[in-house]
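Example S7 (structure tokens).
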């Protein structure tokens, strides 16, 4: 039997998706019908997509006082909700439950139109934001599907993140830069790193081991810490304190070794990261080239 809490969870997720698109906004933007009835090729393609029955809920659709809620819209929302929530297999009961939510949303949209709330400034502003959000997401989705990520891009990202190398090191963590500078001076005068770490380090996980840490990759470390390690040769120590969110560190590199992580193992996540970075670069370029006047 289907758990009621699962249906409610999925329904809640769907309502969140619906609100982000804004059912009322969709009705206002596309006309009374969700699809609109334009004869243009683009509108016809949109209509065909909305009527698509290749989804978890098949051909299930509804008509609410003359307004069609197409199967494609239901399939799209349920598929997205299932993917985001990692839910079990969608059943006819779940599809019916979600369609009921869409029907109620349409009824409220119709009632809102009769009450002429779409003329209110706040409502118009929300509709505009909803439209911008949908269009922005569509642009990002299209970009993600078409942008090319080469093997050279992947290797460069793999190397920049230090995924192919692991580090063994010692470090001393203190609260203030002044404390770190004082300890650094003692070390430069010949002080024993392990002894000073045991006495002064605030890192309870390593101080009893003289500040020593076993082999770890840079991605497991705070970025400033990992970047500092990358600059050191075996036996070297940072010549100034390294600041992280934990405090101030003095770091000594003891050894390195190749990581067991291969490029193929992280190809998927790296590809997604590169695509996100490329899209961010596009957005930054658009902002740079735009004429923006904020008063």
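Recovered sequence:
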């Amino acid at each position: 039997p289907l758990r009621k809490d699962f249906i409610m969870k999925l329904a809640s997720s769907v309502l969140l998706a619906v609100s982000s698109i804004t059912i009322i906004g969709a009705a206002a933007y596309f006309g009374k019908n969700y699809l609109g009835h334009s004869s243009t090729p683009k509108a016809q393609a949109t209509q065909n997509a909305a009527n698509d029955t290749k989804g978890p809920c098949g051909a299930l659709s509804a008509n609410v006082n003359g307004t069609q809620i197409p199967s494609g819209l239901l399939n799209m929302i349920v598929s997205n909700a299932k993917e985001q929530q990692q839910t079990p297999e969608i059943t006819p009961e779940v599809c019916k439950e979600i369609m009921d939510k869409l029907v109620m949303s349409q009824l409220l949209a119709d009632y809102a139109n009769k009450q002429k709330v779409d003329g209110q400034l706040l409502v118009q502003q929300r509709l505009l934001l909803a439209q911008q959000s949908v269009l922005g997401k569509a642009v990002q989705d299209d970009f993600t599907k078409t942008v090319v990520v080469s093997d050279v891009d992947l290797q460069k990202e793999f190397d920049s993140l230090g995924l192919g190398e692991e580090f063994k090191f010692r470090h001393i963590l203190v609260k203030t830069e002044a404390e770190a500078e004082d300890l650094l001076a003692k070390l430069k005068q010949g002080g024993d790193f392990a002894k000073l770490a045991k006495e002064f380090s605030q890192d309870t996980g390593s101080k009893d081991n003289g500040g020593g840490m076993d082999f770890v990759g840079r991605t497991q470390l705070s970025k400033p810490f990992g970047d500092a390690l990358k600059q050191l040769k075996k036996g070297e120590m940072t010549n100034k304190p390294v600041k992280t969110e934990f405090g101030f560190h003095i770091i000594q590199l003891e050894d390195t070794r190749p990581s067991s992580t291969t490029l193929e193992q992280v190809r998927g996540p790296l590809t997604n990261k590169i695509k996100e970075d490329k899209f961010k670069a596009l957005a930054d370029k658009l902002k740079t080239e735009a004429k923006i006047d904020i008063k």
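Notes on this example. The longest helix spans residues 121-146.
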